[in-house]
Specification:
Helices cover 27% and strands 26% of the residues. It is an alpha/beta fold.
Length: 142
């Protein structure tokens, strides 16, 4: 069995994950994690500028980062985890060393993948939604 993973975040000053989504290959099980920003939060000026692209406020979220990772590991177990090739794939390999992460090459930019806009999460942040992105990756891979 296999899963697809996508995520969104900010670079401040290191990369901070704000949303992660995983989708089972059967398309029936999708889990979306909105991650709270690490404490302490950045200065107020960044609270106004960082979330504009993603519409994910620094303080919003239902999971802490490592709590979400543990939940994902418990769902994926020994299955393969497909991630769009590139820097994000390398990042996923570093946070999930015990999971077999498979890079998907040739996937176009997400701005060119528009078959799954209806799968966005409740934040409705369009192209920047990790939930939509896992559905787009799965749809493209079929």
């Amino acid at each position: 069995m296999s899963w697809f993973l996508a995520f969104e975040g900010f670079t401040f000053p290191t990369f901070i994950v704000k949303e992660i989504a995983i989708l089972h290959a059967d398309g029936e099980r999708c889990y979306n994690y909105i991650i709270t920003g690490p404490k302490p939060s950045p200065p107020d000026i960044y609270l106004d500028t960082l979330p504009q692209r993603h519409r994910l406020r620094w303080q919003c979220g239902d999971y802490e980062f490592y709590e979400a990772l543990e939940d994902i590991e418990s769902k994926v177990c020994v299955d393969m985890l497909f991630v769009k090739a590139g820097k994000k794939c390398e990042f996923v390999k570093s946070i999930f060393p015990s999971i077999r992460v498979i890079p998907l090459s040739g996937v176009p930019p997400f701005t060119q993948l528009n078959d799954c806009l209806h799968t966005r999460c409740e934040v409705k942040h369009g192209y920047f939604c990790a939930r939509r992105k896992v559905h787009e990756i799965r749809h493209y891979s079929l």
